[in-house]
Write a structure and sequence with these properties.
Blueprint: H1 2-8, E1 31-36, E2 43-49, H2 76-79, H3 87-92, H4 101-122, E3 129-137, E4 143-152, E5 158-168, H5 173-187, E6 195-200, H6 204-210, E7 218-220, H7 222-233, H8 249-260, E8 284-285, E9 292-294, H9 307-323, H10 328-336, H11 350-359, E10 386-389, E11 393-396, H12 399-407, E12 410-416, E13 426-434, E14 437-446, H13 451-462, E15 471-474, H14 478-487, E16 492-495, H15 497-510, H16 514-519, H17 521-532, H18 541-548, H19 557-568, H20 585-588, H21 591-595, H22 603-616, H23 623-645
Parallel strand pairs: 3-6, 6-7, 12-15, 15-16
Antiparallel strand pairs: 1-2, 3-4, 4-5, 8-9, 10-11, 11-14, 12-13, 13-14
Helix pairs in contact: 5-6, 9-10, 9-11, 13-14
Amino acid sequence: RSHNLRNIVPDSSIHSTNILSSSIHSGKNVQASLNRDQNDNDITIEFNSIVIDVNSYQNQTFPATTNSVQTNHPFELDKALPPKMATPLSVLIPEYTPPDRHTRSSRIINEYHQYINDLKSVLPHVGPIAFANNIWKDVSAHHIICLSLYTFTMNFEFVSLPISFHLFHEQKLSSNIQAFFEHERDRFNLNTRILAGITIDNGPDLKSVASYNILGPRFACLAHCLNLTVHHGLSLWEKPNAKKYPFDSAHHEIIDSLINDEDDELTSDFLPNISSISLGGRCQTNIQMELFIKEPSEHSHVPDPNRLHIVRLKNKLKERSASSDEGGTTILVDVLRKVPLSVSANLPTNEALLQTIRRERPAIQLDHNDRLPLILRQTDRGENFIFYEDESMVIFTCDKNLLILNQCKHWFMDGTFSICPKSYYQLFTVHGMYSSQIIPLVYVLLIGKDTNDYNKFFEQLMLHYDYDPESILVDFESGTLKSTKAIFPDAIQIGCLFHFGQCLWRELQLLGLQKKYIDDDKFRINVKKLMSLAFVPVNDVIKGYSLIINDFDAEDYDLLNYFERVWVGQKKGRGSRRGKPKFSLQLWDIYERVIQDLSRSNNAVEGWHHAFNNRVSIKHPSITKLAKCILREQSRFEIDTERLRAGG
């Protein structure tokens, strides 16, 4: 392939190499499959036919090893080059002495690495790249995979370059193919390249891996599709499977519609139904197919007018499951509502229909390093979305989000737990007020909720911008409060008004006063007066509290003791001085927020968390499912932020 490499880019300094040059004449017919592991250590070549150029070996001596070949390569390559290869040469030229197997294998390895190095030097200078992939089994039932690269030369000549062969001994084919694609992408530095796509056959393992877009979008191999049509549709080689490929009244409607369609277009109603159709009839003709030797036999089928309703039902299930995060049962119940009752007896079981939904949602697997695959590491618009990741946290955000966050003067933070993967403690989010709208900008999975967890997160965030928010609204959670105070010392910390009232209500429940709160109007009004202190100027809070406590009964002492200990401070001695409460007055007083018409609570964030939990739809999902849902939120809010930026 060296001539192709030289023509791809101008003035290339690519060596004139062949994968078997100086060992096997490059102009002869060589059929070989070269198999390499992910670390370029294990290389095997299986030769089907080889023609040796005698002149390249005559009167030459070869060292046992050449160049920089490592001596720790296994002997598979040596075994693939048996001594019997030289037998025809010794007959033709008695004085010919061939190199030993180790020398031949060493040279082949050297040439292979030289070819790969040449290819790496060329790829940065070429335009869009496409790939093709094929997979087959050897005589030992091991899978062999081949990956080829396609592009154009400077003269617009089509170029095909094989880049990798690999032999899989393991059983988990799908995960191995995924690791293989990711390894080749990284090995040739293709992460930032324009990848036009990859053509593969219709095998389930390849289709599953191709859905990750590791090497670009998937294109089905036309030859393979035609082969399936001939094999199953025309039933040339075997009797058709009537259960798997039925021919009934639904197909009659399809065929009639296609015959009468003047535009020759397939509508969406019919495309999913045109699988493989077999009539079950037989006839015999002469070789020229001009005369019937035996007339066509009659085919018969039971009319089934409900068949089309079932096909349409399955199509709707597939469409809904592929385009939404709704639960499978929710989708099924909603779609079944519109199915005619006459079809009910012919419907598949609910479990079979749920399986149809699950097939349209193949689980995205982590890569071989237990990290999120590329398809979950970028936004739908191609921007990197994994800001930082290690054993303790994964931060989801992008440069555009961080730029907006740096422009936001008011931040809002909260955590949610039920949709967090089991290996993490919470999904913590940072929202910013942008053009009077509160939008999520940073998502982080944390393994805990202590100060160190938050500190590590905020320290990573501060590496990108020197953020300087005016205010940060958070819950009354000690870890978050301590961390935000340490990392953002100039920001005003504000506690959520809703959680302030929630704390009071929980204390009422602990003290057994909830029944009194419901039945006693005076007591209920007094408790609400305590809550209303959050709207009083900070300097007047203690004065207002002193007036309110006179209206409480003596039996309410425990509640007042709690309020002083946590919110206003307990009295010291006989004077008016009070000790330091657990939460300072400035933290829970929202008088200034009301004056500035700023949000008093995290209700907007809580509302988003509630809606997001519903969209995830299950508790403790896998990290891949959660990442997919976060990416969908990101895509939605990207549109919202652009509208806000444009003044919409």
